Amino acid sequence: MKFHIAINLERIDPSTDMLEMRDHTLEMVQMADEAGFEIVWAAEHHALEMTIAPNPFHLMTWWADHTKQIRVGAGVANAAYWHPIKLAGEAALCDLLSGGRMEFGVGSGAYQREFDRMFPGLDQKDSWRYMQEMLPQGDLLSETHARQHSGLGCGALAHHLRLCGREQLQHHELAADVAVFRGREISRDAR
């Protein structure tokens, strides 16, 4: 049997001090590490009163820096909010800084109220389309991981992302002259 823990900087009561929550969260992650848990998962949430979790890679990098063996996972990065190249870069840097302990998860988001605040007019029920568009980008993450762990490091990652950026954007083309990124139409000329 394998053990995982999913945790964020969450509070139930607004009077709870966020610095105390930060410290408590880290203590729980360290306890899970010492107890032999395999993965700690961080979610992505925006503009929710109960949590601070705008980028799971920040939490994962912080946790990895304060633990020894537990893997750190994005559970999940919301595909509707991320450009695939930015997501690949964040994931590759987190993996590098964590010593190769990163687990990657992408999803379609949970709460309509987050979508309303982040991108008014974008329906959460349609966000699976962005996740479906993101899935072919797994090749980019795999290539980036292979380059990074073959000694090429972040300089090679940045160069690789610049070279393949135009090609990767093609995955977001939906109609003859329109691409959709984060629920907004962008003319092909604007790219």
Question: Could you walk me through the main structural features you see in this protein, from its secondary elements to its overall organization?
Answer:
This protein has 6 helices and 11 strands. The protein is α/β, with parallel strands linked by helices and 191 residues long. It has a single domain (4-190), classed as TIM Barrel (Alpha-Beta Barrel). The protein has a 4-stranded parallel beta sheet. The protein has a 3-stranded antiparallel beta sheet with strand order 9-10-11, with no helix packed on it. A two-stranded antiparallel sheet has the order 2-4. The N and C termini lie far apart (48 Å).
Brief write-up:
The chain has 191 residues and is of the alpha/beta class. It has helices at 18-34, 56-65, 84-97, 112-118, 128-134, 138-169, and strands spanning 4-6, 9-10, 39-42, 51-52, 71-74, 77-78, 102-103, 106-107, 173-175, 178-181, 184-187. A hairpin with a 2-residue loop joins strand 9 and strand 10 (178-181).
Notable features of this structure?
single chain; 191 residues; alpha/beta; TIM Barrel; four-stranded parallel beta sheet; three-stranded antiparallel beta sheet; 6 helices; 11 strands; 17% strand
